[in-house]
């Protein structure tokens, strides 16, 4: 049934049914199987090409943030790509709760073995700092301070 869902992604009028498909994909995203995570994330990356669909993915943020803990560089990289597109598609500032969760999960990815995961996590961290709501900036201060030294080391490595 997941294969049928991916075939639907090519349909031009998918936006009308997109939310139902996203709900279905969110079930598969809860699976413990990394292969399933990769398949669902590939589908979500395709969905993100349509700004309206990327906006509708807001409800997936908590699960996507959890997936950042995955040690698999491919899963982490795809998750970072989806998160970035979803966060940039929305015009509303990030809530402090989501921003704090992201900051906590992004910091360890600065040291990931895969260079593209390091780069994506650093860029997403910057976006989180830019788009957090004004009242949420103060609680993030600690995470930003803890992240400055590793970011400086990565800058020096480059």
UniProtKB/TrEMBL annotation:
Residues 21-158 form the Maestro/Maestro-like HEAT-repeats domain. SUPFAM superfamilies: ARM repeat. GO terms for cellular component: cytoplasm. InterPro entries: ARM-type_fold (IPR016024), HEAT_Maestro (IPR055406), Maestro_heat-like_prot (IPR045206). Pfam families: HEAT_MROH2B_C (PF23227). This is Maestro/Maestro-like HEAT-repeats domain-containing protein. The lineage of its organism: Eukaryota, Metazoa, Chordata, Craniata, Vertebrata.
